[in-house]
Amino acid sequence: MKALLVLTLFATLGVLAAGCGSGSKAGSGSITITGTTTISNVNTGTPIRCKHGPGGAGVPPPGQEVAGFADPVPGASGGEIQLKRRQDGSLVASCRPSG
Questions:
Q1: In whole angstroms, what is the distance from residue 68 CA to residue 21 CA?
Q2: pLDDT for residue 96
Q3: Nearest alpha carbon to residue 71 among 63, 58, 81, 61
Q4: Contact at 8 Å (CB) between 38 and 92?
């Protein structure tokens, strides 16, 4: 079990380091992303935020998805966030700036 956890952690870090995910972890348990990325082993309710604007969404339960629009504030472009949770527990997260 520990070996699987370590392998999953290394795989996730490898994808992020390669630039395929364009994601980065933020300070308080939330995850900030740009573009589209797949995140494995993320807990339901974890806040996902887009780098280009305010707002975000919590990770839905497996098999569900959420989408929303962020209102622009001064200095931010706003945009759309989509989160789709697969049955295996991984998450496909996508951020698109508006305009």
A1: 20
A2: 86
A3: 81
A4: yes
* Selection from 61, 96, 60 nearest residue 81 by Cα: 96
CA-wise closest residue to 12 among 1, 83, 64, 4: 4
**Residue 85 near residue 91 (C-beta atoms within 8 A):** yes
d(CA 92, CA 11): 16
CA-to-CA dists, residue 95 to 3, 11, 41, 77, angstroms:
32, 22, 20, 12
Phi and psi torsions of 91, nearest 5°: -130, 130
Closest CA to 21 of 88, 98, 94, 83: 94
pTM for the model stands at 0.63
Residue 24 structure tokens:
């980065």
Tell me the per-residue pLDDT of 44-87, one tens digit each, with 9 for 90 and over. Answer: 999 999 887 767 899 999 999 999 876 655 565 668 899 999 99
